Automatic annotation (TrEMBL):
This is NitT/TauT family transport system ATP-binding protein. InterPro entries: AAA+_ATPase, ABC_transporter-like_ATP-bd, ABC_transporter-like_CS, ABC_transporter_ATP-bind, P-loop_NTPase. Keywords: ATP-binding, Nucleotide-binding, Transport. One of its GO terms (molecular function) is ATP hydrolysis activity. Transmembrane segments: none annotated. PROSITE patterns: ABC_TRANSPORTER_1, ABC_TRANSPORTER_2. It comes from Granulicella rosea. It holds the Pfam family ABC_tran. Residues 24-269 form the ABC transporter domain. The keyword Iron does not apply.
Length: 304
């Protein structure tokens, strides 16, 4: 059973945003790798998770517990060893167009300008190379260019940045372009893997703010992996902690905490001690599945 912090879950429960149905179902997913001839290393152990459309789910957990693996499976880049991933009710067996993906290390095309990078996705998805000879391609291109310029502005970049090449931009600016690039495809699901982890604190803060605004405006389903608990509490409408099982005969990570948060976002400044208590609770949960179960009892006991 998943140890959910009942008291907190009830007190913090956001209005259900599941009216639009289940966006992602991680359906009893196990991932293991062969180690030698007869042994397998289990990474995820029958992980079960349903994410409703419009949720902002932040996945936390210690390094190596399988966060990136889970994200890549939702993207369709990797397949579970057992179980399945369903996106909008369909089992995922390849990379599809419904997910936008932003990893920590931006992957812009170095030989294309910012504008070229932004336009490339929609162009390739809609017109193959010969199709570009059609008269309709010009009008399509114009519309895509307009969208790209809007996205740039939305991400806090200048119109003059459109003609720059990636190497002429700072890491923070490149990451803004990477997010704009993902949004150009109008994904219903946005997957972000430590997308802000390499940025300086100022840039990180402004990108967090901007991502929150985008989410509140258009309510895409977001699955955001991070190491940073404060970032998680600021962004998430729901926090999932993955933690390795440490008991005898157990292997792989499971969901150790599943907690809903208010849509207003939490910060130390706004929530004070409550914020600090939650940070401590979440960090203890990430230390181990058994520790999380024990901690839940303690926390509930203390609260009575
Ligand atoms: N192809 C692979 N073969 C063997 N082990 C792998 C492979 N890919 C990932 N792993 C292992 O899976 C575990 C989880 O990795 P990952 O999902 O990257 O964790 P996280 O993102 O939480 O840090 C790590 O221990 C990693 O070494
Ligand atoms: Mg990772």
């Amino acid at each position: 059973m998943v140890p959910v912090l009942e008291m907190e879950a009830n007190a913090l429960a956001a209005a259900p945003s599941s009216a639009a149905g289940t966006a992602i179902h991680v359906d009893r997913v196990t991932v293991s790798y062969a180690v030698g001839k007869n042994t397998r290393k289990v990474i995820l152990d029958e992980v079960e998770l349903e994410i409703a459309a419009g949720e902002f789910v932040v996945v936390l957990g210690e390094t190596g517990c399988g966060k990136s693996t889970m994200l890549r499976m939702i993207l369709g880049q990797e397949q579970p060893t057992a179980g399945a991933i369903h996106v909008a009710g369909k089992t995922i067996d390849r990379v599809g167009a419904s997910c936008g993906y932003v990893p920590q290390k931006y992957s812009l095309f170095p030989d294309r300008t910012v504008l070229g990078n932004l336009m490339m996705g929609p162009e390739t998805a809609n017109y193959h190379i010969l199709g570009r000879l059609k008269p309709s391609f010009r009008a399509f291109r114009k519309a895509v260019r307009e969208q790209a310029m809007k996205q740039l502005e939305r991400m806090g970049l200048h119109a003059t940045d459109a003609d720059k090449y990636p190497h002429q931009l700072s890491g923070g600016m490149q990451q803004r372009v990477a997010i704009a690039q993902a949004l150009m495809m109008k994904p219903t699901i946005l997957l972000m893997d430590e997308a802000f982890s390499a940025l300086d604190p100022g840039t990180r803060g402004s990108l967090q703010q901007m991502l929150r605004e985008i989410w509140l405006e258009t309510k895409p389903t977001v699955v955001f992996v991070t190491h940073n608990t404060a970032e998680a509490l600021f962004l998430a409408s729901r926090i999932i902690v993955l933690a390795k099982q440490t008991g005898p005969g157990r292997a792989g990570a499971k969901v150790a905490l599943d907690m809903r948060l208010p849509e207003t976002g939490m910060s130390l400044k706004k929530n004070g001690q409550r914020f600090l208590d939650l940070v401590e609770h979440i960090e203890l949960c990430s230390q181990g599945f058994e520790a999380a179960a024990e901690l839940t009892l303690n926390f509930e006991g203390n609260a009575q």
